[in-house]
Known about the structure:
Elements: E1 2-4, E2 24-29, E3 33-35, E4 42-45, E5 56-61, H1 67-82, E6 87-91, E7 94-98, H2 109-115, H3 131-135, H4 154-170, H5 184-202, H6 219-226, H7 231-241, H8 258-268, H9 272-285, H10 293-303, E8 307-309, E9 313-316, H11 318-332, E10 340-353, E11 373-385, E12 391-394, E13 405-410, H12 416-431, E14 436-440, E15 443-455, H13 458-464, H14 480-484, H15 503-519, H16 533-551, H17 568-593, E16 627-631, E17 644-648, E18 658-659, E19 671-677, E20 682-688, H18 691-708
Parallel strand pairs: 10-15
Antiparallel strand pairs: 1-2, 2-5, 3-4, 6-7, 8-9, 9-13, 10-11, 11-12, 11-13, 14-15, 16-17, 17-18, 18-19, 19-20
Helix pairs in contact: 4-6, 8-10, 15-17, 17-18
Amino acid sequence: MDGSSGHSRYKQKFSAEDLSDEFIFVIALLPLKLIDSSSGNEIWVNRTPSSTLFCRPVKFVYTKEGKAVIHSEYNKIIQMINDLECDIFKNKKGIAEVSYIMHCTMIDGAVANVLTNTNSSSRCFICHASPTEMNNIEQNKIPNPDHYKFGLSTLHCWIRFFECLLHIAYRLPFKTWQVRMENKAKFIETKARIQKEFKIKTGLIIDQVKQGFGTTNDGNTVSKILEEHSAEEITYAARKVTKNETKPDNTIKKCLEPFEALALCLDLDLSEEKYNRLRKVANNIHADFFPSTYALNQLKQILVPHIEATETSAEVNLKALVHITSKHILEVCADKHPVGKLSLICKWGMDGSSGHSRYKQKFSAEDLSDEFIFVIALLPLKLIDSSSGNEIWVNRTPSSTLFCRPVKFVYTKEGKAVIHSEYNKIIQMINDLECDIFKNKKGIAEVSYIMHCTMIDGAVANVLTNTNSSSRCFICHASPTEMNNIEQNKIPNPDHYKFGLSTLHCWIRFFECLLHIAYRLPFKTWQVRMENKAKFIETKARIQKEFKIKTGLIIDQVKQGFGTTNDGNTARTAIIKKKWKQLRDTFRTELKKIPPERSGDPGPGGSNGNASQWPYFTSMIFIRDQIKCRKSSGNLTQQKPLEEGIYIEDEDNNNGIDMDINKTPKGQGSKENYSVENSMSTFEVETPNTSQSALSCRSEANANATQRI
């Protein structure tokens, strides 16, 4: 068993306030070998006992690792093990009776300390000796035999030994284990120097804290330093050399083409190892069903333009990239045989992120790091006929990464100099683009390119438009104070329109504006002074808590390297989706109040005296086409227009209101059951079986439904 923390908190609603998916505690089991109990001969052996290949999860729970949790779960598992009985299996030669032997050795030092009641992590959990007692060689340490059952991990021994060497090296300048105040500066300086030397000479990041995962001193780091090659590596190499597999003599005519297999790899994000394992299983059933990785690599060489890679960056030629993109789009549209002058409209942009994992690799310069990354990408939107404007091909998911084409990425921090430099380079490449000529059966297609730099966020837009503050508008450079002055004219800069206006960012800004206003309601001033700071913090925490409890949303919290949790999905869920459903449901109710149209009527909600009094009815009339009239069965005559239930298809998993008031339940004879149902409530009205009473009850049901909505 083991626990970890610092996980991403997903937007899900829990039944209790103290529940969270930030922490997780896992219990797992791994089979080691199957032996003959009488002779001790090994029947089956797990050759990779440290791998997760045969690992069997038993339980996981969203909770923080602690003494109470560890003892509770340990006792439960021990009880389950004690209740295990022998299993009986039959085969051709007889009966096999399998019993189970369980060893609790897949634990770390923290869990071992709890299970052995060891109060300090610096003490040995076998004999409870402290570091001072360990240094006293003449003193006898009496081990507790009951603690041997938790095992002695050689991997943890290597890590402890390596860390011991590190901490001794940190203390060499003053030669005492305890770091006193006068030696603290020397300790920090020596530690930083040793970490820097390790990074430069070996590419390893040592003795640095990883949030929720301990430190970087893991088994890989230690084994790389203490051993050049592990026993597992040598065994694996020998097994690869002596491997001699024979394929079954199966043939099949149908097999995947290389481009189909490559598309599958990209869609499923398969690595070369996973693809080979899938290919091995499939090809044992149908010979050569999956092409080899060599064939896929050869296809990649054709489909992917040349990539110029350096130590800190990778880049493709923009001209070659758009040429290949337009070529394959024309192949997709081959049945249309487009000819003449065509235009491929694309959007492109750039963005940076930080807080990435620092990999154990060596750089040529000390100031280089893979903690920051800056990416430039391009996405085709549509291919049109330049003369007629007809659309030949359209990207139906323009906000998806499906057709996204990376142009360049570089390990560097996002800043003004980097943004201006990369933007000017891309603009120069775009200006150098020429028309591409493609031939098909009907003639020649000449493709030109139109590029729009709209895939940018507010930070990049502010830099490109020389906007000094993130609170200013990058279109007209108006500050919040100037925006509040309605009478003042804001003169926009037309050159800045080319960077686009993102509706997604508008939703987020609008949502954040409402949040910040709500935080300041107790004192009603935008500036948070010292005397109001406590109220501000208290109100903010209360609103965040209410959002989490009622909607499951985590709002206005910082995500390291990724801004805040106020993303598009959060804003859409909190405001737009709920508001749209309310408008749609109200329109549905108002529409039911209006009698059906007859010939000569001016139209829905017209001047026939039956117009709805709801002010937004005319604006919402465009969704009337989504209404379906369902023929109902009952005791009322079918000719009357009021005997049709009105139902609107709900785009949110059909969770709308279904008003079908003419269904008669079986076995009720002279009574009729009228129901208005939605996801929150149901009510029923029973009336005598007459037309007049049915109509009056219907009006009452509609009025009640309107009130409830």
